[in-house]
Design a protein that fits this description.
With 312 residues, the protein is α/β, with parallel strands linked by helices. Strand 1, helix 1 and strand 2 form a beta-alpha-beta unit. It starts with a strand and ends in a 13-residue tail after the last helix.
Length: 312
């Protein structure tokens, strides 16, 4: 008996595509997982697995009901797919743990002045600086979804004074929570380190413009593990240069890889990471995708999908 074919539609490096195919096929042995082929006939495909897909390729699947994204961020899909195709984003507890680890790592780096000591080493300077207690350092997390909650828990467990902001009111253990526009102003004025974990939506695009960045506590630092478009980078560079923002850790950019001539490479007070804060774990994500797809074929019910109005 022929196995049902599920197309994997992606625009990623060939090595990564093949690795994903191997993991997905292992997780779904009763199905045939195959890389999208323009010459193939996918007239019966109800579902596709996607990773940064080309919308024109998805348009060649006439019976498509939903897509299973392998990424947590789905803003490109929200704006490119017809509204009658459901988008299921990757919600993986391992992704949250990996992100929390990255947030804690870079928060501790800023907290213990590692960028400053690296600059001193480059200049041959031996100088000690006062160590601030974790409980005296306010770390604010923008975005209190699954990733934000995991980050708050990790920060709190390590003794930091944790703040959180979300669009609507939320309550988390050991976190001082803020919400709405007024709450964002108060949040930014208090936080010593701001961590961005927001989804990119119409409401969050450009959220941290010059006005909002200027509201940050003087000499506060910033970590962006979300999406580049949430920040006005020209405004950020100006505030780094005048010292209002002490340091920025940037892991996401409008164009990736970051071009060699981009001024951010040589901006004082910037740490650049090549989008490595929370890569999707192929093993755990493939199993989650498999569970969703298997349940769909058993029940006919599409898994919980993205709310198009909210964007996540």
């Amino acid at each position: 008996m022929d196995r049902t074919v599920i197309p994997f539609v992606s625009d990623i490096a060939e090595a990564s595509r093949q690795a994903w195919l191997d993991h997905l096929q292992t997780a779904l042995p009763e199905f045939q997982i195959e890389a999208f082929d323009r010459s193939a006939d996918y007239v019966d495909a109800d579902v596709a697995i996607v990773a940064n897909p080309d919308p024109q390729q998805l348009a060649q699947l006439p019976e498509l009901k939903w897509v299973q994204s392998l990424w947590a961020g789905v803003e490109k899909l929200v704006h490119s797919l017809p509204s009658d195709i459901a988008i299921v984003r990757m919600v993986d507890p391992q992704l949250a743990r990996t992100m929390a680890e990255a947030v804690l790592t870079m928060t501790l780096s800023l907290h213990r002045d590692l960028p400053l000591y690296a600059a001193q080493q480059a200049a041959g300077i031996w100088e000690q600086h006062t160590v601030t207690r974790a409980k005296d350092r306010k770390v604010g997390v923008l975005g209190l979804g699954a990733l934000g909650r995991a980050a708050c828990e990790a920060l709190s467990r390590n003794g930091f004074d944790v703040l959180g902001w979300s669009r609507s009111p939320k309550s988390l253990p050991d976190v001082q929570c803020f919400s709405g526009d007024e709450g964002l102003t108060d949040f930014l004025r208090l936080a010593d380190i701001v961590v961005i974990l927001l989804p990119l939506t119409d409401e969050t695009r450009g959220l941290l413009d010059h006005t909002r960045l200027s509201q940050m506590k003087p000499a506060a630092s910033l970590i962006n593990f979300a999406r580049a478009s949430i920040i006005d980078h020209a405004a950020l560079v100006g505030l780094l240069e005048n010292g209002h923002v002490r340091h920025a850790v940037l892991d996401v950019f409008e164009v990736e890889p970051l071009t060699q001539h981009d001024p951010l490479w040589n901006t004082k007070g910037v740490t650049i990471l090549p989008h490595v804060s929370a890569p999707t774990n192929m093993t755990t994500a493939s199993q989650i995708a498999a569970n969703n797809i298997r349940a769909f074929f058993e029940t006919g019910q599409v898994p919980q999908a993205v709310d198009r109005a909210r964007g996540y």
